[in-house]
Structure formats: C-alpha cells, structure tokens
Design brief:
about 65% helix, about 5% strand, 4 strands, single chain, 5 domains
Length: about 575
C-alpha cells in the first residue's frame, strides 16, 4: 500500500472525565510514539493513545487500529457538554493566530512535510491551497479529526461542527484566492520589500497582506534552507523606519519559527548527516553563537564536538545574535531542552561519545544562560538527561566487554562526574559500589601482572576520584573503604612497606616513599597506608637515621610536609 495512505494519530486525555483530543497526525510511527511518551513524561496528559489509520481503497474510509495505550485509566465522570459554547475559530482571521497555525501544522504535518511548506505559507499561497484541495481526503480528514473533540465540548453533533468548519475553511480559501486575483498581495519582484512594508503600515490587514508577499517570496526556495535564505534576503532589505521595520521582522519571524520548529526543517538547515547530539550542539551554536564561540576558544573539548555552521545556518546565526528574531532564538533553545528530556540517544552507537557531547552541551548552554534560557531550565533538562545515563541499558553499552574490572570502575567514576541531580548521583554510586565490592575486582587486581606499586597507585587515584564525583559522604565513604581494603590486600601480598623500609637505598629516599604511601599519594588510604605509616615511624626512631636526614636540609621540608599529610607529627 502507498505510504501516503497510512498515517498515525496521537490522542491525549488531559484529566479524568475529559474526552480524547487529537494532538498529532504523522506518517512516522516512531515520531507518533515518541510524542505520546513526551506528553506523559512532561505531565501534559494523564493518558495517551496512538492509532494507525489505514485507507480502505474500496470504501475510501480509514480503518483504525490502536497500537499504543498508556497512562491512567479514566476514573472521573464525563462533564456535561456546555451548550452553545462558541468555537475558537469563527472567521478566516482566526485561522492566522498562533494557536490555529500550530493546530493546522499538527493536523496536516505529513502533507506539509511532503510539500516542504509551513502553515504560514498554506494560509497565504493560492497554489498550495489548490494542491491541498486537489487531494480532497487530506483536508476532509483533518476537519473530521478536529471536529470530534469540538463537538463533544460544545454539545453539538459532529456533522453540525464539520459543516461549520467546512464553511470557515471555504471562506478562508475564497478570501486568499480573491486577494491573489486582485493583486492585493505585494510582489517583491516589482516592488521592494521595504517599500511594500512601509505602504502597508497602518492598513487594517497589514499582517495578512504582507504575509502573502512573504509567502510568495518563499515559494522560490526549493528546500527548507532555500526558504530560510529567501527570508534572510528580505531581512537584509527591511525598511529603516521604526514602525515598518517592526512589522517586517514580526512577519518574517513567523515562518522562520515554523521552519525551525519542525524537525525536518531544522535538520536540513543544520545538516542531515548529524545525529541528535550533533544537531543539538548545532542548535545551541545557532541560538547563542557569540557565547558558544567564546567558549570554544578556551575549551578544546567543546570545540571538538561543536559542528561548524555553514551556509544559511551561519547567516541566520548572525541575525540571531542581534536584537531581532527573539522568538526564533527562544524556539530553538526550547527545542534543545525538549530533545534533551526526550528518550532518544545523543550518540546512538557511542556511549562514551554521548557523555562527552552531554558535557559540552552543558557547558555551552550554561554559558548562554540569561540570553536564551534560565539556569533552572538548563539544570532541570540535564537532570532529566542524566537519568538516562545511569539506566542499566546505557551503563551496559558504556562499559562494553573489553574493559578490565579496574577500567570499569574508572569509567563509572567518570560517568558519575558527568551526571547531575541527587537521585542520579545516588544511582551512579550504586553502580560504583557494586563493581568495587565484586569479587572479580579484588581477584583481578591481586592476580594482575602489574607490580604492587603500580596497582596501589591506580587504587589511590581511584579513591581520590570517588570524592570528586559529588557523592554524599554516606555514599562515598563505603566505596573508599572498600578500595582501601583491596589496596591493603595487595600491599600485604607483596609486603611492600617492609621491603621499602629495608631496601638498600638512601634513608631519605626510603622515608619519602613510605610517607607518600602513608599520605595516600601512591596507595589508597586504609590498611596499606597504615602499614606504611608504621614502617615510616619505626624508621625515624633510629637516632642515626635522624642525623642522616638532618644532613640534607632540602629534604627536611619535604619530609615534614609528607608527615603532616599522613597525619604524623611534623
């Protein structure tokens, strides 16, 4: 069956007792399911339903199959419909509002995407309207879907509401066709954008008429990037007179926001080769170019993962750094946050790269705080994203199968450093605790080919890392104690402290090595450090050794500092 004859619809129930309302119609099954999950995750609905609509070629009716139902069962009583409630849209002018355009975009998402058009263009371009009318079924089905919840809310029959909507749609179509036929929409080939805007300032239908001219100019762009270029061409030609300039940028901002608010539009603009992490990095750079460029100049790690903006994207970034297109900038920033809180992986086949990307995004968005987002919004988004990093499936993918037990703990501690939120830190600490406490960790280290000194130095660094992760003391201490116990067993196997104390080397060198062990520099704090401290004290009690140390004044300060660090009297 042809792909255009199958689509998926997302319905939501916002509260107990309310009816199902259509939220999205799309030809992408994955997108429909993700949208339903997002509605629940963001608590914008108490239950969701996704249906598959298949066109029957014989009856020309859609057959509905429910593929997902999730959320709370309806326990409330259905509220009595409010008789005579006025519909939200009663005149063609109402279809041009932000709410109406958003609903049109969702109802006709598939058709608009196939024709690379925005709701703004559809409401102003006669050629697009004729193309939509020619399909017949697309427009009719959209009206039916929006009419069902409207009829329930108003206490009317579905047929009655459909008839009202059909009259409204036809009146809007007639208006656009009539105005196009009479040449009321400006043509920027014969009249400059600045002159047309100045002429229309103060006209009762100034936004509608100027929008018709802008939509006509956009029609020459064969791609989303081409449409953005055409809009920026018009921005370059905007009038200088304040009232006309304000009108011009207000009208240019509407289609720009719609293009960049659509996944297909912004991905084409930024580069279809990008994965989600790369796309979010590019969006962040697009919305806050100056702040991100400043960060890149001092942070090589950020520079490595931030894509370079090119073509229309780079051109748009220059405009977004100015005082115009504030809503476009805000829309991009909130799309970044929305994707961050969604279920999709940033780097689907590279768990380690995902953490690097998330770290870079955190720095970039934090740098841009105040211009495009608040600190609280950024923090909440990264707490939500961190939740995915400590789930079992991600941890398993991150650790892989080739790491040693020591390498796994090192990796988990690095992961722990890069998650935020108290609950996520606790979950990360549990992963670390489980791996450190495993018999495999102890036996592998004790039987490993490395020298005892090398193993103890690695455990000392591991122990220090535990306290850099942001774990609360109650979580960090048991992990550090276990690492110290393993270090004690390794030291006991090799009798390293005794060997150093009796080595044939200058006493200052032996004492320095023992004190470094005792201070937790080259061995983890615990039994190994305690035994090194004992040997160091025994070594220093001999009068001849004190006299030898006194002969090298430069070593006295070094020994005293190590003694203080090890908790010994200086």
């Amino acid at each position: 069956m042809d792909r255009a004859q199958v689509h998926f619809e997302v319905f939501a129930r916002r509260q107990h007792g309310s009816s199902w309302s259509l939220q999205l119609a799309t030809e992408d099954r994955t997108r429909a399911i993700e949208s339903a999950e997002e509605l629940l995750a963001e608590q914008r609905a108490i239950s969701v339903r996704v249906t598959k609509e298949t066109l029957d070629e014989e009856t020309r009716e859609f057959k509905t199959v429910t593929i997902l139902t999730k959320g709370e069962p309806d326990r409330g009583k259905v509220k009595k419909p409010r008789e005579g409630l006025e519909p939200l849209c009663v005149s063609p002018h109402d279809l041009y509002t932000l709410h109406a355009r958003d609903r049109i975009g969702r109802l006709l998402e598939g058709w608009l995407a196939r024709n690379r058009a925005t709701p703004f263009e559809l409401l102003h371009r006669p050629d697009l309207i004729e193309k939509l009318e020619a399909t017949g079924l697309e427009l009719q089905h959209a009206i039916q879907k929006v009419a069902i919840p409207e009829a329930q809310a108003r206490g009317k029959t579905v047929h009655h509401v459909i008839r009202d909507f059909q009259k409204l749609v036809q009146a809007t179509i007639d208006r656009v066709m009539r105005d196009e036929r009479k040449g009321r929409f400006p043509d920027f080939e014969t009249e400059s954008f600045a002159a047309a805007t100045e002429r229309l300032v103060g006209h009762p239908n100034q936004q509608y008429l100027l929008g018709g001219g802008i939509a006509r100019a956009m029609s020459t762009g064969a791609s989303w990037s081409g449409k953005v270029n055409r809009l920026l061409d018009l921005a370059d030609q905007a009038p200088r007179e304040p009232a006309a300039r304000a009108l011009a940028f207000h009208m240019l901002e509407t289609p720009l926001t719609e293009i960049l608010g659509a996944r297909a539009g912004i991905m084409e603009l930024l580069g279809v080769h990008l994965d989600l992490g790369g796309a979010l990095a590019a969006m962040t750079r697009l919305a806050a170019a100056d702040a991100v460029d400043a960060l890149i100049s001092i942070e090589p790690a950020v520079a490595k993962v931030m894509p370079q903006l090119q073509g229309p994207a780079a051109r748009l970034a220059n405009w977004l750094d100015g005082p115009y297109f504030e809503n476009v900038r805000t829309a991009i920033a909130h799309r970044v946050l929305k994707e961050l809180t969604g279920p999709k992986r940033l780097r689907p086949n590279d768990a380690e790269g995902e953490i690097v990307m998330l770290r870079a995004l955190a720095m970039a968005l934090t740098t841009a705080v105040g211009r495009i987002l608040t600190y609280e919004e950024v923090q909440e988004a990264f707490i939500n994203r961190s939740r995915t990093l400590v789930r079992a499936d991600f941890v398993e993918a991150f650790l892989g199968h080739d790491r040693s037990p020591l390498g796994e703990v090192e990796a988990l501690l690095w992961l722990s450093e890069n998650v935020t939120g108290g609950a996520n830190k606790r979950q990360a600490s549990r992963w670390v605790q489980a791996n450190v406490s495993a018999l495999r960790f102890e036996t592998d280290l004790r039987a490993g080919p490395d020298s005892a000194a090398t193993k103890l130095a690695a455990l000392a660094e591991l122990q220090r890392s535990v306290f850099r992760c942001g774990f609360v003391v109650e979580e960090a201490n048991p992990i550090a104690v276990k690492i110290g116990e393993v270090g004690g067993q390794i030291e006991a196997d090799a009798r390293l402290a005794q060997a150093l104390a009796r080595a044939a080397a200058p006493v200052v060198n032996r004492l320095t090595l023992l004190l470094r062990l005792a201070a937790g520099e080259t061995a983890p704090r615990g039994p190994a450090a305690d035994r090194a401290k004992t040997e160091a004290i025994r070594l220093m009690r001999a009068p001849e050794i004190r006299a030898e140390i006194a002969k090298t004044p430069d070593a006295v300060d070094r020994v005293r500092a190590l003694m203080q660090t090890a908790g010994m009297a200086a």
